[in-house]
UniProtKB/TrEMBL annotation:
This is PD40 domain-containing protein. Transmembrane segments: none annotated. InterPro entries: 6-blade_b-propeller_TolB-like, Cadherin-like_sf, Ig-like_fold, WD40. Pfam families: PD40 (PF07676).
Length: 292
């Protein structure tokens, strides 16, 4: 590797593989491919490039692995100059198809990706605004396998500097990341930081409730899914129906049942909230249509 530069090492959850980005000898360091080292009988083997469709003529970097061998990585292959997030699953021992994470990608650069080993959540960096550098965001996977709307992490983590390279400990207790600091003269330094995940993981909507249509004056009971909300580090969430509910709606949180006897027609939005033991709160809206 005398003519190439090596970046961004990432160990697989089982410790048997090492992914990294390596520049090409005939290009600038801005063009990298994904390479892999495998450990056999306690020794590291020969490094191999993971070829197309993962490595292309574009820039691929910040790759990581889930427990089932799915590779998540960033690439600017889209043709618009932006870095987006992609994944590729093993099929009969090969990576054959690459999928863009459309629900996460935006019109800004996304990179520096970390995938939870069980793929319950993903943390990545995004250029939050033209005036600000990369910040860290989190997205969760719901019951249907879709990624939720990315949420900006706590302001104690994200600052006016550049937050990148996230990594979460295997027990989900600590987030590690890098911060590039700038002063009046430009780039000043880059350091590694860590923080408890108490303000990283918050309740998220795992199984959304579809809208319901009911008849005016009829009593209607709606059973809410027990896993309407989930939380990575909290099993017991406090679920409530917010105070702005109509007076004809009653929520039994022990049975997770909503009872309604509407006295007026129209379209109503009920707001449920989940609070974890660290007082992180997330809301879920449920639309109720009352017909005459």
């Amino acid at each position: 590797m005398e003519d190439e530069s090596v970046y961004l090492p990432y160990f697989s959850p089982d410790g048997k593989s090492l992914l990294y980005a390596q520049s090409r000898p005939d290009t600038s360091n801005g063009f990298t491919d994904i390479w892999r080292l495998n450990k056999m009988n306690g020794s590291w083997g020969q490094a191999e490039k993971i070829d197309n469709p993962i490595s292309t003529l574009s820039r691929e970097s910040t790759a990581c692995l889930s427990l089932d061998g799915t590779i998540y990585f960033s690439s600017n292959r889209n043709g618009n100059g932006l870095a987006d997030l992609y994944c590729s699953s093993l099929e009969n021992g090969e990576y054959r198809i690459v999928e863009r994470l459309d629900s996460i990608c935006s019109m800004r650069d996304e990179e520096s990706i970390f995938i939870a080993p069980d793929e319950q959540y993903i943390i990545f960096s995004r250029y939050a605004s033209n005036a600000n550098g990369p910040d860290l965001f989190i997205s969760y996977q719901d019951y249907s396998g879709n990624w939720t709307q990315p949420v900006l992490l706590n302001s104690a983590i994200n600052t006016a500097d550049w937050e990148r390279r996230p990594f979460v400990s295997f027990d989900n207790r600590f987030l590690f990341f890098t911060k590039q600091i700038f002063d009046d003269n430009g780039y000043a330094e880059s350091d590694i930081y860590w923080v408890s995940t108490q303000k990283v993981f918050k309740p998220f909507i795992f199984k959304p409730i579809p809208s319901s249509t009911i008849k005016l004056g009829e009593v209607f009971h709606l059973s809410l899914p027990a896993d309407l909300f989930r939380d990575i580090d909290n099993e017991n969430l406090e679920i409530s129906l917010k105070s702005e509910k109509p007076d004809w709606a009653r929520f039994d949180k022990a049975k997770m049942t909503l009872s309604m006897n509407p006295g007026e027609a129209g379209e109503f939005t009920l707001v449920f909230a989940a609070i974890d033991k660290h007082l992180n709160e997330t809301e879920c809206e449920v639309k109720i249509v009352v017909e005459e």
